[in-house]
Amino acid sequence: MHTLASLEDIVMQFGAIRALDGVSIDIHRGEVLGLMGDNGAGKSTLVRTIAGNFQPTSGRYVLEGEDIQLSGPADARRHGIEAVYQDLALCNNLTAAANVFLGREITRRIGPLKVLDHRSMNNRAAELFRELKSETRPADLVERMSGGQRQAVAIARTRLAQSKIVLMDEPTAAISVRQVAEVLALIRRMKDQGLSVILISHRMPDVFEVCDRVVVMRRGRKVADKQIADTSPEEITGLITGAIHTA
Amino acid sequence: MSQTNGPDMNIDLLKGSDRSLLQRMMLTQEMWIAIAIFCLGVIVSLISAKFATTGNLLNVLQNACFIGIMALGMTPVLISGGIDISVGSILGLCGVTLGILLNAGAPIGVGIAGALLLGAFCGAVNGSIITFAKLPPFIVTLATLSIGRSLALVVTNNEVFYEFGSATDSIIALGGGYTFGLPNVVYALIIGILVLHFLLRMTRWGRYIFAIGGNEDAARLAGIPVDSIKVSAYAFSGLMAAVSGVFLVGWLGAVTNAIGTGYELQVIASTVIGGASLTGGFGTALGAGIGAILVEVIRNALLIAGVNPFWQGTFVGGFILAAVLLERIRSLRR
Fold it and tell me: Exposure check for chain A: N or C terminus, fewer CB within 10 A?
């Protein structure tokens, strides 16, 4: 499979704490990669490094054959790397369309003034929701939405730009069973469109349902990197807890 | 929009609803306040013939405009999740500055520009301390409320200015004069409402103000320049306090260093009654203006009904509590 990005020997040191201790991961095009590990295993640090929130202490970050150094999440977005955060980072008081376009509003000129083009944003958001097969309506307020619809809004945000990698941090942690199915379907649709999705999750069934490959972290190190077909929930659980050392 | 709960703030403003214009108007908080003002007016004019006279109504309107202009400034601050209780002191400091400049022989344009710049600067100072020192807005503006009033005393040395040099006539004409039968300050409020409505609804600045009040972290993650937007909101609040100050000085024809004392409570009451949320995320320009009129009508009604004016602070405080309680009830229903 074609490698889109790779992290090589990434070390992330916070004072005396080594949160990532030489982690190397390849990210492939059109693949859903599951990232698992117990709390404090280094998952979040790794994700934040990929998303540009943290600059690694050492190691290489290669995207499409070129070394990159991200100065922040905005820089990461410019490189086509989008993150969907656990708390979704949505503004409840704004509409779905306003959230989708937050920070990248479409404007039109009226004389010397640049004004928001509400109609274009609503239409484009409606298109994105249709692509995602979500029933979310662009003009609805986010605070009145279900967990699944909120995920759709957060994911639609990532679809605005020509993103290549979408990081999803526990997207199914706080939603109902029916909505979990909806979110997993959204992830599959992103994969079908050729995106690389990195799914951070505690939920074994979700990972085994949508992921192609799974990486397990423990104590800042990568302890497993396996195709889903070659492993089992039991083995992954053992790797997470440390009952199995490496695989 | 699936819910039809009565006073529903500016939600309709933020979305292209499929309801008709009239239906949407009936759902807004502004409409309910307008109805309240009308009903109250009818009741008071039945009690006393003094209320519904042209002179009294214009007086009420004029008073409401001074507060309303400041309430327009308060609106973006509240929407962004902050609060500015220093506006009365900023008005005071800008008012005495205008008096000193004109008294020293400055042309009216220079005097007004100086007062407005100072107002925006004071607001920017508030905003910068709040944003960069990460201190609570209430505490910061409580401190600057005290500092501003004290500086007004320092620069005037407790002197009253009623002589504005060559600008005397024009400043009095501006603040106390009428155009087409209405006090000039009414036009200032109307223009202010239109401008702020445009800014909040049609510009990125307005969108970001709402976003910051809705979820500041999300706004930061979206790459919005949260800090400078917040500073600009406070600067706008300071500017509007100064605008109000310019008209107030002209209307009074004199400046004392006590000008604007205690206005902050009426301003906050007006803004909150007009639908702005003290927890951030909601508010409209029209609501701020109409809220100011309601507060002033109630004050005037109490005076005309013969209620001891000492009670007024109790009523203003009561409005703030009532408006916040209403907001709480509404957010529970959501």
Answer: N
